[in-house]
Design goal:
By secondary structure, the chain is an all-alpha fold. Helices cover 81% and strands 0% of the residues. Helix 1 packs parallel to helix 3 and helix 3 packs antiparallel against helix 5.
């Protein structure tokens, strides 16, 4: 196992989660529909917890969180996401990212092997943490997908 490769994967994932927290907090603060706002707030909380856990794990493995190969693409995604105003458009923006569409998704896919390395080569504690995070991620993705399919409020 290459500890450096595992740390790199964790750091990339941490950057993605920090981006998710920022965008979801912004959307939660600016969405008029109570149910959508509450959902964005719940996702923001999970994303923030994930970013914190990943940073703590990086430190436990002897490194410090820092810049990643996806930072530039994530900055562009944050700009676009924060400029997006309608709930349906926001849900579509999130859906495009998780389905691998768009500039940020392409950049993250190019670094995806580093995240897979952390999953595959991490120590048992790292693997357990990532498995728990993936469960939360699935909840967020499923909620956004369900909201995207829900009829618009009249």
């Amino acid at each position: 196992m290459s500890n450096e490769a595992v740390i790199e994967g964790l750091n990339i994932y941490r950057a993605v989660e920090a981006c998710g927290e920022r965008v979801m907090r912004h959307w939660a603060a600016t969405t008029p529909e109570d149910d959508i706002r509450a959902g964005f707030a719940a996702i923001a909380e999970r994303e923030g917890n994930h970013a914190r856990l990943l940073a703590e794990r990086i430190v436990a493995l002897g490194a410090e969180p820092g810049p990643s190969c996806v930072d530039e693409a994530l900055a562009g995604f944050i700009s676009r996401a924060e400029a997006t105003t309608g709930s349906k458009e926001r849900l579509a923006e999130f859906g495009a990212l998780v389905s691998g569409q768009g500039e940020a998704a392409a950049a993250m896919a190019s670094c995806g092997q580093a995240i897979r390395t952390a999953v595959e080569q991490g120590d048992p504690e790292t693997k357990a943490m990532l498995a728990a995070i993936f469960v939360d991620e699935r909840l967020s993705i499923e909620w956004c997908a369900a909201q995207s399919k829900a009829p618009a409020a009249v």
